[in-house]
Design brief:
Blueprint: H1 21-42, E1 50-54, H2 61-69, E2 74-76, E3 80-82, H3 90-100, E4 104-112, E5 116-123, E6 128-135, H4 138-141, E7 145-152, E8 158-162, E9 171-174, H5 190-205, E10 210-215, E11 220-225, E12 230-234, H6 239-256, E13 268-270, E14 277-278
Parallel strand pairs: 1-5, 6-9, 9-10, 12-13
Antiparallel strand pairs: 2-3, 4-5, 6-7, 7-8, 10-11, 11-12, 13-14
């Protein structure tokens, strides 16, 4: 008789959850992420403590620092207050500065780790004075007109209202149909502003001091010299050629002594057409 023996079946005991690698990964990874999060966003190491401003002249350093400082505090994960150098939105701060501090033309903000912001600014400089008439309401001045004057930069943007002209800057009067301007707006296109400043510079080289420029239409610019002579330009034609023709006319005038020192015997030079007209 043959007897068969069954091998005893061994039952493996269940492993504790603590023996599983995935359990420890599931515990350690959130802890590591939490530590990194705290270190980068909540620890004192990366909290912004210094704001260094360079390039300012007329605009107060304190004003810029205060403006930036007020925009550093923000919340992350809805309730954590932080001034971390990693969480600050530099583009948004730059945009706010340019919208509010109108004397600034350019702003660049860089992070300097671990706790400093470098703010580099470029201020606007006044290229001329821009003036135009504003139609008052009946309540203000019985429907009369008021002249508004502003400092304007070489980009054509007005950035400061002035009540009285005490500078040697060129005064540009805008006689074209226009709406009321607000500070920070573009009063005239950069190309047209470049044309006006180029003409002014060229006439200065010809020993003609311009005291006033009038933008009569989009293409007509009238200039008035210190001696009363008026010169009319066409901004849609070749300015270099108009300036050359003006120089030739002035040389002829001086040679024939048509234009005395007072300038009273000569009224205008019109360069807008193929032929130069004088009176």
């Amino acid at each position: 008789m043959v007897y068969k023996y069954k091998k005893p079946h061994r039952y493996k005991g269940k492993k504790s959850i603590f023996h599983y690698r995935f359990f420890w990964l599931g515990v350690l990874i959130p802890i590591i992420i939490g530590v990194i999060f705290y270190f980068l966003f909540l620890s004192e190491t990366f909290q912004i403590k210094k704001i260094i401003v360079t390039g300012e002249e007329k605009v107060s350093t304190e004003d810029i620092m205060l403006f930036v400082g007020e925009r550093l505090e923000n919340k992350i994960l809805f309730f954590f207050q932080t001034r971390s150098i990693f969480s600050v939105n530099l583009d948004e701060i730059k945009k706010d500065i340019l919208n509010d501090l109108l004397h600034l033309a350019e702003v660049k903000i860089d992070r300097k780790f671990p706790d400093t912001l470098n703010v580099m600014v470029v201020e606007r400089f006044a290229a001329a004075i821009w003036c135009q008439t504003r139609q008052n309401s009946l309540e203000e001045n019985l429907g009369g007109q008021e002249e508004q004057c502003f400092l304007i930069d070489n980009e054509g943007i007005i950035f400061e209202r002035i009540e009285e002209d005490k500078t040697e800057l060129l005064k540009i009067k805008n006689l074209t149909p226009n709406e009321e301007l607000k500070l920070g707006e573009r009063a005239v296109g950069k190309e047209k502003m470049d044309q006006i400043m180029k003409i002014n510079s060229s006439l200065t080289n010809l020993n003609l001091k311009i005291v006033e420029a009038a933008l009569v239409t989009e293409k007509r610019l009238d200039l008035k010299t210190e001696k009363g002579l008026e010169i009319y330009f066409n901004l849609e034609r070749d300015l270099d050629w108009q300036i050359v023709r003006l120089k030739l006319v002035l040389e002829e005038i001086l040679e024939k002594k048509i234009l005395p020192e007072s300038g009273k015997n000569f009224q205008y030079i019109d360069l807008r057409f193929e032929k130069v007209y004088c009176k």
